[in-house]
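Hey, does this match?
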Amino acid sequence: MDKPEIEFPGGDAPTELVIRDIVVGDGAEAVPGAKVEVHYVGVDFATGEEFDSSWNRGESIEFPLRGLIQGWQDGIPGMRVGGRRELIIPPELAYGPAGGGHQLSGRTLIFVIDLLGVG
């Protein structure tokens, strides 16, 4: 798969985690606390600006789910390898409320995640 294009959503940001499968994979299933290998792109819901992308670094990334923001911990389990999923993550499940000290605090974030492997 190629790097996904994220369409600017418009409208009000959701207050709860939104999970949408773009492509349903047929490989191994990610479970809570698993180690996952992913490609991803992250966009600010309000501005549509990309703030992070493994695609731009030219390599996937592997990490344990429990070390990630809550929106990923809640949104990736159930995905299967080969799948592509969109997560829209409110601040409470991302980097916390505005003024929280992270550049993305207070922001609703959109990620499109390709699951390449689970461990």
In short: The mean pLDDT is 95.
